[in-house]
Each structure stands twice: as structure tokens, then as C-alpha cells.
Design a protein that fits this description.
Elements: E1 12-20, E2 23-30, E3 33-37, H1 41-51, H2 56-67, E4 75-78, E5 81-85, E6 95-98, E7 103-108, E8 111-115, E9 121-124, H3 128-164
Length: about 170
């Protein structure tokens, strides 16, 4: 069932691995609540990309080409929705942070608390430096995406005007 992947939209704040009595799961933190899924974070991200007619692998490859690096790339899930990992997705401690404004507070050298404007707090196993670096990369990627989209719309506008003037 793909239902849980629909929570990975403009309302999503964070996605992380979660273990309980029922086994390994995912916890999805959104502006309107926290949800638990039976699917892993990577499975949910893949499903969210498929909804946008792509794959997580393809989106990561695109991000690597644009940003010119290969380690822990952020990527775009759908129009206006981007996400960055706090560590390699192979690690259980990896948390995926979505493109929302947040403030940071260093708990210790390897732990950071993120506070979103709705006063929702998420503690992640990543240094303050990594969080700021990854967030910057995500916003660079989103900016590039918006600029490319704007250029495509402009080219389409010129093409349509040229056809009308014939």
C-alpha cells in the first residue's frame, strides 16, 4: 500500500527509522502529527519518488550532477519538496529532513535538536555542522530546480509566441 508515502509532501518535516514491539518501522513527523509506517524510510522515499514519475536513485544522481559531490546528496521528491539525509541511508540513525525552516541547538558534538516553527522538536544523530551543510546543499538544489523550471517556462512562452506570430 502506498498511502504512507503520501505523507511525504510539503507538510512533512522529518522521516526516521523507528523500532517498537512490532519490529522495524518508520516514523513520519509532519506539521499535522506524527505517524508510524511498516515501511522503511528508504521504501517510503522510493514510493514518493515513483509518484512523481522518478526513482530515488535517479533523483540522487541528478542531485550529484548538479551539486558536484556524491556523499549523502539531498534530492527532490516532488515539485517544491526536497529532503536531505543526516547520514548515510545505510545507517539506522539516518534521519531525513524536509525543506522547512528550523532552528538548531547542539546537544553534543554528534547530536542536534531541530525546532520547527510549530514548536515541533526532532533530535537527530548528526553534528550541527552536518545539519547546516546538508540544509545548505538542499536549498542550493531547490534553487537550481526553481531556476531551471523558470527558464523552461520562459522558453515555452517564447516558442508559443513565435508560433502565434507566423
Amino acid at each position: 500500500m502506498h498511502c504512507e508515502s503520501y505523507l511525504l509532501d510539503s507538510q512533512a518535516l522529518a522521516l526516521m527509522a523507528h523500532k517498537d514491539d512490532h519490529g522495524s518501522r518508520s516514523k513520519i513527523v509532519t506539521l499535522h502529527g506524527t505517524y508510524v509506517s511498516k515501511k522503511s524510510p528508504v521504501q517510503l522515499l522510493n514510493l514518493a519518488c515513483v509518484r512523481s514519475r522518478s526513482t530515488k536513485l535517479r533523483q540522487k544522481q541528478t542531485a550529484c550532477e548538479i551539486l558536484k559531490f556524491k556523499q549523502k546528496p539531498p534530492f527532490i521528491l516532488s515539485e517544491g519538496v526536497g529532503v536531505f539525509p543526516t547520514s548515510s541511508s545505510k545507517h539506522d540513525t539516518c534521519c531525513w529532513i524536509f525543506n522547512h525552516f528550523f532552528t538548531t541547538k547542539e546537544i553534543d558534538k554528534k547530536t542536534t535538536e531541530l525546532t520547527f516553527p510549530t514548536d515541533i522538536k526532532v533530535v537527530v544523530a548528526a553534528s550541527l555542522h552536518i545539519i547546516h551543510q546538508q540544509n545548505g546543499r538542499l536549498h542550493t538544489l531547490l534553487s537550481h530546480s526553481y531556476q531551471t523550471q523558470k527558464e523552461l517556462y520562459f522558453e515555452q512562452f517564447l516558442f508559443n509566441n513565435e508560433r502565434l506570430n507566423r
